[in-house]
Design goal:
four-stranded mixed β-sheet; UDP-n-acetylglucosamine1-carboxyvinyl-transferase, Chain; binds uridine-diphosphate-N-acetylglucosamine; globular; alpha+beta
């Protein structure tokens, strides 16, 4: 296991490229299970989660080859239907093979993903949607065991108490592409990653309408071909680096970004006094005056993303005044709070909210990364803190940020990776 050692207090300066989106790439890779020809995905980030899914797909008969930023996936053996615990437990998003396996191979045995640090994460909506398409599903010995004849189009609502489900929408949408007749998905997730997957499926021959809205209408087809597609830029990485510029009082340009995917993030940062100059494919971020406190709610897209909640909290720790951050998507996603407190932050957590009183400075400390975005929040806090911060268990970061330390170093940060002695 590795750790990061960060010397804080250096304003970031320079230009950095945003990688392709992890959360878009994963369900697209799983779509190779329904493709009857090779799938070429461009701009796939080289991350632990991507490698985990490639290994899982290999166990399901899909060969993958990486050439620089591109991956070509080719299904050469349709026999296996079993996604083992050993691989699925490493990454919850492995569940995105369920819908494709069921639609194409008529059978899927997929380990239940299990718990995770950001709270209870059920898959009941995935199962409800696939059952509505005609699948028989049982849970046995920790596995989802699903079978079906050819799936049949149906009217389905994927809304839950916390909004719609992103990977659930990906699963049901992909499966419905090969069903007979028409499927209508209400309360579908509108996230750009769902739209990107839909666009890939359309390039493969699927007939989908309503992408980016809460109602998807899918007319099933007999077969889906291979295709070539470029994955959208990672809006969460972009938001993290925007906050990195603000928290260090720096001035950076991020390239390969989509302003339309970052509207809610820009709105909150704008209210806080962060200046953003958007070009067609880039954004220059600067901070001229003092930061202003805000009230922010993480909600489904197009609202403020839960995946940026922890990073924003880190910035608000250094924003004079009282701020509130509420997470309506994952109400227990506050593992970063106790570590930020160890760095001198003043935060009170109550239910799904964190009440933050800005302090004038944070101080370096040993802190423990607990999940992907909480780890990013600790990196941001460390970049601004006085002195040295050691972040343990950064394998969480390696799951979702491509070459983060190299990117930060190129912007002038002092970030060093070294083997960890703390278990
Ligand atoms: C995806 C993202 C994750 C992001 C999240 C919310 C991927 C690989 N991961 O996760 O980074 O934080 O969307 O934007 O794309 N729920 C149910 N029943 C279900 C499924 C979900 O109640 O069957 C609840 C969840 O507990 C949560 C909410 O719905 O409260 C949203 O979860 P969901 O959109 O499914 O998250 P993921 O797709 O797992």
């Amino acid at each position: 296991m590795d750790r990061f050692i960060i010397q804080g207090g250096r304003p970031l300066r320079g230009t950095v490229q945003i990688s392709g989106s992890k959360n878009a790439a994963l369900p697209m890779m799983a779509a190779s299970l329904v493709a009857s020809g090779p799938l070429q995905l461009n701009q796939v980030p080289d991350l632990a989660d991507v490698r985990t899914l490639a290994a899982l797909l290999q166990s399901l008969g899909v060969e993958s080859e990486r050439h620089a930023g591109n991956i070509v996936l080719n299904c050469v053996d349709n026999h296996s239907c079993r996604a083992d615990y050993e691989l699925v437990r490493r990454m919850r998003a492995s569940i995105c093979v369920l819908g494709p396996l069921l639609a194409k191979r008529r059978k899927a045995i997929v380990s239940l993903p299990g718990g995770c640090n950001i709270g209870h994460r059920p898959i009941d909506l995935h199962l409800m949607g696939l059952r509505a398409l005609g699948a028989q599903i049982q849970i046995e010995n920790g596995y989802v065991i699903a079978s079906a004849g050819r799936l049949k189009g149906a009217k389905i609502s994927l809304g839950g108490d916390q909004g719609s489900t992103v990977t659930g929408t990906c699963n049901v949408m992909t499966a419905a592409c090969l069903a007979t007749g028409t499927t209508v998905i209400d309360s579908a997730a509108c996230e750009p990653e769902v739209v990107d997957l839909g666009n890939l499926l359309i390039a493969m021959g699927a007939r989908i309408e309503g992408l980016g809205t809460s109602q998807l209408v899918i007319d099933g087809v007999e077969d889906l071909s291979g295709a070539t597609h470029t994955v959208i830029p990672d809006r969460i990485e972009a938001a993290t680096l925007m906050i990195a510029a603000a928290i260090t009082h720096g001035e950076i340009t991020i390239e390969n970004v989509r302003a339309d995917h970052l509207t809610a993030v820009s709105e909150i940062l704008g209210q806080m006094g962060v200046s953003m100059a958007w070009g067609s494919n880039d954004c220059r971020i600067t901070l001229s005056g003092p930061l202003q406190p805000v009230e922010c709610q993480a909600v489904p897209y197009p609202g403020f993303p839960t995946d940026v909640q922890a990073q924003l909290t880190a910035l608000l720790c250094l924003t004079f005044g009282q701020s509130t951050v509420t997470d309506k998507v994952f109400p227990s996603r506050f593992m970063h709070v106790s570590e930020l407190l160890r760095m001198g932050a003043n935060i009170r957590r109550d239910g799904d909210s964190a009440f933050i009183s800005g302090v004038t400075s944070l101080s370096g400390a040993h802190v423990m990364a607990s999940d992907l975005r909480a780890s990013a929040a600790l990196v941001l806090a460390a970049l601004a803190a006085r002195g040295e911060t050691v972040i343990h268990r950064i394998y969480h970061l390696d799951r979702g940020y491509e070459q983060l330390e190299l990117k930060l170093q190129s912007l002038g940060a002092s970030v060093e990776r070294s083997p960890d002695t703390v278990a």
